[in-house]
Amino acid sequence: MVQAQSRSTGATPVPRTVADAMGTAGPQVCDDMTVEVALSVMASARTGHLLVCDNDGECTGLLTQAQLTAVRDSSEYTDRVQLRDILVDPGPFASPLTRMAEAEHAMRYHRLDALPVVDEHGNALGLLAR
Fold this sequence. Notes:
The protein has 130 residues and is an alpha+beta fold. Helices cover 28% and strands 19% of the residues. It has a single domain (18-129), classed as CBS-domain (Roll).
């Protein structure tokens, strides 16, 4: 006796590329913004991260609330510190065509909760979050 198993038509396919799994980019701010203003933007947007872009719109990194708070609470902080001053290591970026396994590996290796997704010109398209 052979038993056939039907496939569920409502099953969600496993994402193969970052484009299949990424979410919206969320708030994007310019790198000349101060830390205090960036923290205010985060609070208003109710998010834990900001995508930082330069004056040309190219994504230069991702900053978390924890990173900004640590900078603000440091003894060297002044109200003139801009985001570009603290983005020393912009971290990895993913292309929408990056395979999910590669993106997940990069996130584990760099201990990231989110990975910016950018196009061929460096413009932010979205965010891959855990």
